Amino acid sequence: MRKAEQNLDAFWRAIDDEAARKDSALQGLATLYKVAEGCELQRTPEWVEPVEEVRKTVETEVPYEAFARASLDPEKSNLIVTDEKIKIKTRGLARQPPHVVEEAIVDQPDHQPSFIMGKLVLKVFSALFYTPTALSENPGEIPWLDFVHALHSVGFAACKLYGSVWQFTPTKLDVERSIQFHEPHPHGKILFAVARRHGRRLTRAYGWDGAMFVLDR
């Protein structure tokens, strides 16, 4: 910084000399002082190395170091060691926890009811839960009214909701879930493939299968 100030002073002196040669009236009037008239020039002082303060450190003894230097010899040590007495229980024996007998949980099988019915109703459920055999033939189509009558005979109440949607609500069964089916249009008969789907829906909803439906003899 001081070097820069010196260079700046030399610059303004050269300006003053050049101005004095061109106009004698400027002789002795330094441009630097003219600009700085009424102001105190600021100069950077010389660099002085700072004096470092020497901090005095007080050595303190750490407790664990003093403990490490302590003698472990009982004759030289100032520590007092007392014998800890352990009380042993001699009166009676400790009580054993009662033996817990775990009862085996046996899953009870879900017994499905058996439905005894006539030939017309059994024919409907035989188509719904059809099991193909070598000598059996496809039951064919099921009239919609026969399907409604069959579900009503095993404990469902039929109710037409809207359009072709019918809802069957259990009234005499140990189930609460209702189920809906679509009435076929326009001929009013359930195709065999659709009847098989209806049977699978009944299986998923109530766990039914074809063995539950028995002919009344």
How are the elements arranged and paired?
Layout (H helix, E strand, L loop, with lengths): L1 H21 L8 H5 L27 H6 L46 E3 L1 H10 L13 E2 H10 L2 E7 L2 E6 L8 E4 L6 E2 L1 H15 L6 E3 L2
Parallel strand pairs: 1-7
Antiparallel strand pairs: 2-6, 3-4, 4-5
Helix pairs in contact: 4-5
How would you briefly describe this protein structure?
This protein has 217 residues and is α+β, with helices and mostly antiparallel strands.
Describe the fold and architecture.
With 217 residues, the chain is α+β, with helices and mostly antiparallel strands. Helix content is 31%, strand content 12%. The chain is built from 6 helices and 7 strands; from the N terminus they run αααβαβαββββαβ. It has helices at residues 2-22, 31-35, 63-68, 119-128, 144-153, 192-206, and strands at residues 115-117, 142-143, 156-162, 165-170, 179-182, 189-190, 213-215. The protein has a 3-stranded antiparallel β-sheet with strand order 3-4-5, covered by helices on one side. Strand 3 (156-162) and strand 4 form a beta hairpin. The N and C termini lie far apart (124 Å). The model has no long low-confidence stretch (mean pLDDT 77).
